[in-house]
Amino acid sequence: MSPSSAAANSGEYRSRGPPRCVPAPDITTTFAIDILSWNLTELKLEASFMQLSSLLKATVCLIWPSSGWTTCAQKSASAFPSLLDATLDDLNRGLNSGIFTSVDLVNAYIERVKETTPTLNAVTEINPDAVSIAETLDLIRRQGGPLLGPLHGIPVLIKDNIATADKMNNTAGSYALLGAKVSEDSTVAAKLRKAGAILLGKAHLSQWAECRSSNSSNGWSTYGGQTLGAYYPFQDPSGSSGGSGVASSVGLAWASLGTETAGSILLPSDVNNVVGIKPTLGLTSRYLVVPISEHQDVVGPIARTVKDAAHLLGTIAGVDPSDNYTSAFPFPKTPDYAAACVKGGLLGKRLGIPRHVLHDRREAPLSNYSVTIFDSAVDILRSAGAEIIDDIVLPGYNMTEISALLTKSLHADFAVAIEKYFGQLATNPYNITTLRELRDWTQHEPREQWPDKNTLSWDNNLAEGLRNTDPEFWDVHLRLLYLTGPQGYTGALKNHSLDAIVLPTAFAVMNAAISGTPVISVPFGRHPDDTEIVKDKTGTLNAVAPNLPFGIGFAGAPFSEETLISIAYDFEQKVQAREVIKPYIKPKTDLEDTVRRRAEVESRQEL
C-alpha cells in the first residue's frame, strides 16, 4: 500500500469533501435582490455577459439552494476555491470571471493569518498597503486595462530576509535589523511586483537563517517568536524558511518565497507537505537578501503544487546586474517552466539512486521512515516509464569531511557577506557594520535573549578569523566543489547519463547545496499513526511524530529545472499526496466567507 493510500485509509485523515454552502441567517428575497444589485454596481456594467452570468450563478447558489444543498455546495466550490488548496489557475479563473476580487483574496488571507498566528505563527507581519494595492489592481482588471503580468492581483508571502522598499521590515528575525531600510526592492521582490503580485507580508524564519545559535529551535527568532508546523501539535517546522513552508501549506497566501544555503527551502517543504524548488546557483538574484554565503545562497519558491512552484520560479528567474552570479544564466529568455508540467514527464527518464547515501544517516538522522518506504516511490517512478539506475555511487560522499569543510566555508562567507549587506542599508538604526559588532550588540541587547540563546556560530566564526578573500578559503571551497561536483551529483549525472538523481528529500540536500545544483521536493507520504515521537535538539518541538509529511527529492544538473519540473509534475500527479495528507489544524475563514461578508456589508449600506 502506498503511503498516500495508507493515509487515506487511516480513518483520521480523510480527504476533505466540498465545502458546505450555509445560508446567512434571515436571508430574504429583498436581501437577495440587494446582493444582485450590488454585483451590478461593483461590475459597473463593464463586465461581459459571461462574467455577469458566472457571478449571478454563484450568488444564486449562496442564496437560493433550491436544488438541494449538495448541488449548491458543488456550485459554490466551483466558484470559490478552497484556499487550503487553491492553485494559480483557480484564483485567476475566479478573478477573471468576477466571482471574487483581489481585495477579497487579501482580506481572506489576512483573516487566515490572524486565525493561525496563536498556534502556527507563520507570518511575521502583514503589508499595511496590501489592501490598497489590491484595490488598484482590481480597478485595472475591472476597467479592462492590460494586466501587469501573470500574477496580477495574486497575494504572495516572502521570507523575512528578502528586503522591500516599503513599509515592511526586513529583520532576518533579529531586532538588530528592526527599522533598517533599503533604498530599493530586492530584485526578486521587484520581479514579483512587476508580474502583478501583491506582497502580502513577511513569512517567519529561523533567526539569521540559523547561523547564530547552536541551541535554538527551527523556526525560532527573537523578533518573530516560534513557528510551528500544522500536521501535529508542536511540530518542528524545519528551517530556516519554516514560515514560508507552513504558510504555503495551510493557505495563508497563494505561495511564498524562501531562501536556502543548505536545506532551508527543501527541508521546510519536506515536512510541511508542499513543493519546494531549490534552484541552480545563479538562476535567481540574491540582491538585497540578507546573506549567509555568496557561494551557496539561492531564492526559490514554496507552493502547494509543482505547477504553481514553476510559475513562481519563472517570475523571479533571470539575469540581474546586481548579482554577478546570475551572469551564468544560460538562456536568451526565461524558460516557461510551467509549460513543462505535462503528463508523461517520467516516460523514458533515467533516474539514479545512490543507495549508500541512505545508509549514512548523518545527513538525515531522523528520516528512518522515509527510507523504509522509499522503494514504494521507486515503484511509482518505474511504473510511469522511468528507467531506474540503482545503486550508483557518489565517491565524494563523506559527510564527516564535508561537514567540517562546510562550516569553515560558510563562516568565511558570512563574515564578508553580512558586512556588505549592512553597507547597502539606507537606514541602519544601530550602526552595526561588522560581524563582531553584530555579535557584541546581540549579547548586550536583552530582547535578543543571550545567553539563553547563544551566539556560538558567530563566536566560532570570529575565533577562526577566516574570510572568503583569504587563500585558505579557496583551498576549502575548491575541495568542497570537487567532493560534491565531479565526485558527487554532477559527476554521477554525467557518468551515468542521468536526467535526475532521486532520494528522500532530507538526503538530497547537502550535495546540491554545495555544488549549486537544483533540487525539487515533492510531497509523498506521512508518518503512520503509531509513530513514536522524537523531540528536536532543544527538547521543545516534535521532530518526528504521527502524520508528519515527507517528500521525494529530484536533483539535477545546473540549470536543468525544466527537466526536473517535468519529472516532478508527473510524479506529483501519480501520488497526489496533498489529497490525503491533511493538517491537524487549519484556518476556518475561506474565500466564500469573505465574499459573503462583503456582500452583507454593502447590502446594508444600500438599504
Explain the overall architecture.
- The radius of gyration is 24 Å and the shape is globular.
- The chain has helices at residues 3-9, 29-43, 49-63, 69-79, 88-97, 102-116, 130-142, 187-194, 242-249, 266-271, 306-316, 355-359, 368-372, 374-383, 399-424, 435-444, 456-464, 471-484, 489-495, 510-515, 561-575, 591-606, and strands spanning 123-126, 155-159, 198-203, 220-221, 225-226, 255-260, 275-278, 298-303, 350-353, 387-390, 500-504, 519-526, 534-535, 542-544, 549-555.
- 40% of the residues lie in helices and 11% in strands.
- It is of the alpha/beta class and 607 residues long.
- Strands 1-3-2-6-8-7-12-15-11-9-10 form an eleven-stranded mixed beta sheet, with helices on both faces. A two-stranded antiparallel ribbon has the order 4-5. The chain has a two-stranded antiparallel sheet with strand order 13-14.
- Strand 13 (534-535) and strand 14 (542-544) form a beta hairpin.
- It has two domains: 3-80 and 592-606, no CATH class; 115-129 and 151-587, Amidase signature (AS) domain (Amidase signature (AS) enzymes).
- The protein contains 22 helices and 15 strands.
- The longest helix has 26 residues, at 399-424.
- Residues 104-564 form the Amidase domain.
- Residues 1-20 are annotated as: Disordered.
- This is Amidase.
- It holds the Pfam family Amidase.
- InterPro entries: Amidase_dom, AS_sf.
